[in-house]
Amino acid sequence: LLEGEEGFALSQGTWQRDGWRELDDLRKKLENLKELRELVRSLGRSGGKGPLRKAPEELESTRHPPGVVRSPLQPEEVRGLARSGDLSRMLPSEMALLAHGWPRKVKVPAAGQDAAAAAAAVGQAGGGVATASTEDAQLIEEEYFLPGAHAARMLHRVRRAERMLLSYERCGWLDDTPSRLTGRQEIRPAAEMGPIILCLDTSGSMRGAREVVAKALALECMRGAHRQQRPCYLYAFSGPDQVQELELSVDLPSLEKLLEFLSCSFQGGTDVDKPLQLSLERLQKDEWAKADILMVTDGEIAPPNEKLLADIAAAHDELGLEVHGLLVSSQVSDSMEKLCTHLHVFKSWSAVGAESWMY
């Protein structure tokens, strides 16, 4: 920020804005707002394989956008033990059971040999010391089974038929496979997360502690996006067609707009249709196709337009869009449940100087 035309001059431009005090206060509050930091980390979908890191778990599911899933079709590593009917993966204990039921072979004298030759043949086959010459003995191989061999062979066959052989679990990661998010986290080879689109309610009912939460979340989205090198865009909405757009990036023009936003108070009505329509339009751009939407509101909103709900559902099926909602209220509204695929209720009221019973 010090590389601009003005250089480092506290008496000029950006350094004289009142928003810096707000920014510093929000930074201190964010230290105790772990749930906001975790929420920001869960936003945005990965763009394929990448380094191992903590990321949302995905399961293979038809008619969903492509993702990265764990699959036995890509046996890259041994993950643990499992039950199966695969002979190539079974444990040595299962192999020992199979070997016990396998027939042994022993050399015995052919029919018509005398007793001395027979004794010598048996002694030679069993590893003993023969007391008679076996040069002229004619030996043939015969099969025999150890005690319990039949039972061991039948037990192995039954375990294999029921796919109950104790086996090594070998699996890996398949890319570009239709998958869905489960809502859980796991260590997986995921690429960097996608962009963030933040829709922030700036109506009059968001004043007070709710306003502090909303501004703190905007700051955390900007910090998280900058740290992970991904885009972030803000739609601050109030009444019909009253939407303020702001790209949350760490450069001088964006920071000046953010400081101006932080120094203003919230007022006006609430219309969620327009910011969501703008968000869906932004998703059509290639660089924003992997973005998720986060809506922050107190839940006092009108029922959303049916066409808007249909467009969000289509984006969810085609692009994998996830709409997260953060309710800064103790009441869960039906409208937010219809709009959001993941609904979060803010609970850390004491960190912003308020009590939960007040909201």
From TrEMBL:
Residues 44-71 are annotated as: Disordered. Coiled coil: none annotated. InterPro entries: VWF_A, vWFA_dom_sf. Residues 196-300 form the VWFA domain. Residues 54-63 have a biased composition (Basic and acidic residues). One of its GO terms (cellular component) is cytosol. This is VWFA domain-containing protein. It comes from Tetradesmus obliquus.
